[in-house]
Amino acid sequence: QSETLLAGLIGRGIGLSRTPAMHMAEAEAQGLSSLYRLLDMDAPERSQLGLAGILSACEACGFDGLNVTYPYKIDVIELLDTLSDNARAVGAVNTVVLSQGRRIGHNTDLWGFAESFRRGLEGSATDHALLLGAGGAGVAVAHALADCGIARLTIVDSDRGRAERLAEQVSRNRPGVTAQATDDPGAGIRRDPPDGIVNATPMGMAKLPGMAIDAALIEPAMWVADIVYFPLETELLRVARAKGCRVLPGSGMAVFQAVRAFELFTGRAAESERMAATFEAL
Ligand code: NAD
């Protein structure tokens, strides 16, 4: 267990991230002195160093670890010594633990969504889920759904090839799950209605309003999860809630990825309610 926390977030356009505040408030509540820096790679002093340079600099300065976000979650892998099983399965890293000269890559987005799902949609039917979006976050969510007991997963992406590759990847990594891609979610839903729907496209973000599925396809018996969390209540969740669906907002994934990262950085258990309260207060 560490007595201090020194960490940071590497990415671009990360100025509004709530992750530093969550880590520092949790550290403070546990009596640790902490510093969690936003390491925006658009800053000239960092863009010159590049990802490899900034990783080495942080390591040399004694950082316990780093979170990694857009656009580095895949590029960082070749700079690491080992990967956790989840990071290897997803093929992306959002958390790097720096320990005794070694760099260990984890994917806490996967566990973050899974934990949010287990807590927020406890007892929901898990036979069949529809996943909208097979991009970076969608890959982690697909594996998380498998870990939450989803038996069949239908994947939609406006880029059909991505949906197909993800279906193959999930079938390979989680052999208990039957995963398939589809171009026509409407026909699929009518033929074989899912128990629930997860949005992992950017649709619904403040700068990209709307939703990636026709509202008429959502039935009251379905649960509906979004991973977009700005705004917290997306159009999809508003529509679903109005129909009487159980809903799961994207804030849970954002909080629980940080909960697990804190535990990896410090070796201490984090109090998730406290980290959620910090997230919500911002
Ligand atoms: P990405 O760009 O890698 O992937 C998005 C995917 O959605 C792409 O494959 C794209 O083709 C597809 N898509 C876009 N519009 C679509 C539509 N209308 N129908 C079907 N497919 C469509 O982005 P990402 O990194 O996967 O992130 C997606 C969103 O997830 C982000 O906007 C972000 O808000 C959110 N996110 C949340 C968390 C969290 O912790 N809650 C974590 C990561 C990302």
Topology:
Blueprint: E1 4-11, H1 19-29, E2 33-40, H2 44-47, H3 50-60, E3 65-68, E4 82-83, H4 85-90, E5 95-99, E6 102-106, H5 108-120, E7 128-132, H6 136-147, E8 152-156, H7 160-173, E9 178-181, H8 185-191, E10 196-199, E11 223-226, H9 235-243, E12 246-248, H10 251-266, H11 272-281
Parallel strand pairs: 1-2, 1-3, 4-6, 7-8, 7-10, 8-9, 10-11, 11-12
Antiparallel strand pairs: 3-5, 5-6
Bound molecules: nicotinamide-adenine-dinucleotide.
Nicotinamide-adenine-dinucleotide binds near residues 228 and 253.
- Which molecules are bound besides the chains? nicotinamide-adenine-dinucleotide
The side-by-side strand order for the widest beta sheet comes to 2-1-3-5-6-4
How would a textbook summarize the main sheet? Answer: 6 strands, mixed
How widely separated are the two ends? 28 Å
How much of the residues is beta strand, in percent?
15-25%
What's the β-strand tally?
Answer: 12
- Average pLDDT, rounded to a whole number, is 97
Examine the coordinates and then state which fold CATH places here, giving the name of the CATH topology of the largest domain.
Answer: Rossmann fold
Which parts are unreliable, with pLDDT below 50 for 5 consecutive residues or more? none
Text of the CATH class of the largest domain: Alpha Beta
Q: Provide the number of structural domains.
A: 2
Q: Give the C-alpha Rg.
A: 19 Å
N-to-C series of helices and strands: EHEHHEEHEEHEHEHEHEEHEHH
Counting DSSP H or I runs of 4 or more residues, the number of helices is 11
CATH architecture tag of the largest domain: 3-Layer(aba) Sandwich
Form type? globular
Q: Structural class, from helix and strand content?
A: alpha/beta
